[in-house]
Batch of 4 targets.
Target 1
Amino acid sequence: MEVREPIVKHGKKTFTIAEYLEMENVAAEKSEYYQGEIFAMSGAKLPHNRISSNLMITLGNRLKQKGCQPFGSDLRVHVEKNSLFTYPDLSIVCGEVKTLNDDEMNVLNPTVLIEVLSKSSKNYDRGDKFKLYRDIPTLTEYILVDSLSLNVEVFRLNKNNFWQLEEYRAIEEILLIHALQVSIPLADIYEGVTFGQA
């Protein structure tokens, strides 16, 4: 998803979490929340959607009987430590899904998060958003899939609790998601994708 400028509603620029959740529950379009500000999210182009769909189908098949479940971009994730509410392109939760106040809407415990990069979101997803995601205690892998070129970046926590980068840049390579014990060929991730449309 692409993030726009902060929203001003009802003559206000900052909102409480309760106000945001109340507005979001009746909103026609999704918005992010961070430290009082609300940010509208725009739709994504065809390559972005194809990649997301390919990943959802593949992960859904690979994770059967593994105790982990993938969710699409309609699932909202909340980072309690820094106040972020956001909609990752894919969230994978292993074990019981925990939500804010058991509301079944704001997931707290993803194991893996995947963002599909677009021209307008890639810097945010690689930088500030990743910093915010690192405050999720259960997160062990963060995967960035470029929709503009063949490139997958995997940030994973190593044994020393540092985030380590691994990159995949060739169509014949196979993405390894250690936390899920699954592998996905890049050819499957990028199936049907024509670059230059994102």
Note: The mean pLDDT is 92.
Target 2
Amino acid sequence: MDLVQRVKNICLTPNTEWPVIEAEPTTAGALVSGYLVPLAGIGAIAGFIGGSIIGYTVPFIGGTYRTPFVVGLGGAVFMVVMAVVGAFVLSYIINALAPTFGGTQNSDLALKVAVYSYTPALVAAVLKILPSLGTLAGLIGGLYALYLLYLGLPRLMKCPPDKAVPYTAVVVICAIVLGFVIAAIGTAVVGAGMMGSGALGGMTGRREP
């Protein structure tokens, strides 16, 4: 199934799409390269355009702030890399927790749950091209991703329906902690990039005596 059709189906008809995903023979490499990276890349490009070209309006102060080009580009690459790393870490957590909630361990299916349930958040990231809408869209996409996770866990990981809520809750808590870690790393990377960009600008701005 092509990417656009899968995005449409998992977002609009998840109850009928999860069984299709479960039965679909897909390798981890194909799932990441053919689905996760393209979607994450589109959002990263949108974020780069919004941050480095369109710019952010600073509340109560006014004016427009733009992330330096090189820093914004590095941040976009970082977002894609972290999307892949985050999906694998989350799939490991999903798989490890499965027996605790009466489910069956399967690393391939766990990766499918991690990647496909995150689809709404990846799609919402496209709106980062308009920074004023990016945060709200990300929140809505994230909440819907939780619903997809709730539907996908009992179907793919075979946990009893009555265990789906606590299973989802624990996975979400782990995902939030993971998100904070990624955000902290990203802040450090961007901060270092800003400092490096400023230092480079200062060096190129100096005149030799």
Note: The longest helix spans residues 164-205.
Target 3
Amino acid sequence: MSEHVVGYHPVRELLLRRPEAAVALLVGERRRGVRRSELEELAGRHGIPIRSVPRHQLEALGAARHNGFALELEAGARPRGGAGDPGLVVLLEDVQDPRNLGALLRVCEGAGVGRVLIRDRGSAPLNPAAVKASAGAAEWVTAERVTNTAQEIARYRKEGFWIYGADAEGQAPWEVDLTGKVLLCLGGEHRGLRRLTRESCDVLLGLPMRGQVESLNVATAASALLYEAVRQRSVAGRASVAGSDRSG
């Protein structure tokens, strides 16, 4: 059975980066404009057939917000993943909304995360809705499903990683050293991290809430935490280079 990605950004990203996996470009029969012309030009460049289809056929693929575009892939085709920071890893636990999963992958790819671990049981599938929400990031971030959170934490701790967990009561991330090997654990929309996972973390990280809302969406919180890690690692890298220049 063929697989599909849906939405303008995911389709465009795959046509640009991995056109050999595409079987056909599906375009809504009423879709017009620059985006249609661009995707059809990309498909034509690689000899990919273009099919005009009714709206309901695109909606049947599992994502209502398809923007009028879908790409049929070869059976078994999967995103290939990219090259991020191997010392920055994210573990997702019980993220049940595919759109949140896609948004998280987008944040992780943007922040240069080396690997995303997704707890298989209780988590959303990487379906067309998730891929679309990732805006093309699912094609580049290295993600894998795992069955046992505790085993993964133990494995990464043995490899020298510090285990951090996102929790409303945790320390502000700018008060913690995030420049080394980091495994950041993020919980689901409803319960956050599971109790045993929270207790397995070396440090809990939280974001001070100064308004009336009690918490942030998981993808928004992940963005704030990860980019603080990016900031610290960038500063540390520049300091290391400067020190090396002085010593030379």
Note: The chain has eight helices and ten strands.
Target 4
Amino acid sequence: MADPIATIFHVTDMHLCVEPDGGTRKNKRLLSRMLVAGAEHAWPQGAREFLGKAMWHREPALERLGPALRQLSEQEASASPGAPIVVLQGGDVEALGSWAPDGLVEYEAFPSFDFVHKRLRPDDERTEWLDIFGNHDTWPGRHPVPPPSGLAQINRVRIGTVPGLVGPWPDCQVLGVGEQVPLVIARVNTVAREADGEAFAYGVPSEHPPNGEDLSYVLDQLEAELGPWQHQRAVRAVLLHHPIHYARELADRHGPNRLMGADELAACLRDLRVQLVIAGHVHALDPPASAVGLEAGCQEPLEYPTVQLVAETPTQDWPPRGNRGNTNADLPTRSFCRYRLLAQGETFDIERTVFRWNDNEGEFMPVGGSPRVFRGIRLG
């Protein structure tokens, strides 16, 4: 019989539009329509594609996300007493970055995080909440890119004033006590320092807060944090914004958004026997909802025992594509994920349920009849 290790709720890439007073921006639809209308005219192809992908949150989905997380976390607490519950927030909380004046810090500089922490975070003391930030969160909220000298760097330092994002990272959180199998979660920043990283949304494993260190420093810190757990009976997980494994079927749609140094990071995680990587950024479910298992070596450059799970956005709105002859059928849908970790002797299974937004019901609803289960991942 399976023993519950922990439940993870994975929420990422909300791309919210929140005003400094905490209210959601009321003009977001108008601005979105303006951008899309501009994209229909004789702009250069690259500019037309950029404007046509203007992204905003869907208000009804945002209103239901907090209650859904609270209800589900209460159900998990009742069903598996003693097993920890954690919500992993994977970055890109903000749609347009922070353009707060110099001198403002914490929630005053990043009102979207204030909104998320007060309105979405479950208040059940059993539920932990861990944040990470993405490239949209540190973006200074203006074009053209690159921004004025030093501005991007200011936001990379300043976001570390938000509660829960102070750092330093990589860090390590341990959930589970007593006779339970520990769940060890390391956070790694992947937001690039360079201005062109802001423009093209690629990632680089980086220290947080920034102090000029290189990739080898990040890998050394990961080894220091996770090394003591390397041969323990535990679940070792890494939370980051940019995926390490970049699914080939996503490459055409998200070509420039890759993670630099992915091979080196993957090798480090393999050596540390990290079993679980949790990422977002590409707004696509990977492995797809139809996947029933993961075989060793199928997630290059990740090697056994490392498995990566990427989630969609639960709230991002997708503007209509006008009269260009295409439809929204190929666009990502809104969802978040629940991962139940279940011990089976010396291995564990990951039971994934995708909760997808249903416009007709006005709720997040589980996809399909049975959860997808990824089996037989070594605990030791």
Note: The first helix runs from residue 28 to 39.
